[in-house]
Specification:
The protein is mainly alpha-helical and 143 residues long. Helix content is 85%, strand content 0%. It contains 5 helices and no strands. Helix 2 runs antiparallel to helix 3 and helix 3 packs antiparallel against helix 4.
């Protein structure tokens, strides 16, 4: 699955880039549509298959994973909206500023938010398995 996700991510970025640098809305729209295909695949895998893989998890882990899915949707969902700003009639200068601010906010929320969520999920799984989080931190620090 990891290899498929990496390939999809590379395709998404590589096919979105020609549209991102284009000033022609038609070219931008075509490449945006093409890059949406691997984007949708990535979201499907993370949303559906991750949910199926965690069916046996504790309620707390399921809740945290659900919140992580919503964070994913909120942060990743901004990218196609920002990509479409020029087609939606937002002026070039305003679109560029809004795009960069939006990408920065989405990146910060995604990177930091996912880090905190992954930590919380790992902590909840360890607690569900009877491991003490404090002893795990101590063991990791002394290793």
């Amino acid at each position: 699955m990891m290899a498929k996700m990496i390939v999809a991510a590379v395709l998404m970025i590589a096919t979105g880039y020609p549209g991102e640098i284009s000033s022609d809305n038609t070219t931008r729209g075509i490449w945006g549509f093409v890059s949406t295909i691997p984007f949708a695949y990535i979201l499907y895998v993370l949303w559906v298959q991750l949910g199926q893989a965690t069916e046996g998890a504790t309620p707390r882990v399921k809740k945290l994973l659900g919140e992580t899915k919503l964070l994913l949707l909120a942060t990743w969902g901004f990218y196609p909206i920002a990509y479409l700003m020029p087609q939606l009639g937002v002026e070039a200068g305003s679109a560029t500023v809004a795009l960069q601010v939006g990408y920065s906010v989405a990146d910060i929320l995604a990177k930091c938010g996912y880090g905190f969520m992954i930590y919380a999920i790992a902590q909840a799984k360890m607690e569900a398995e009877g491991a003490s989080v404090g002893s795990a931190n101590t063991a990791a620090a002394t290793a």
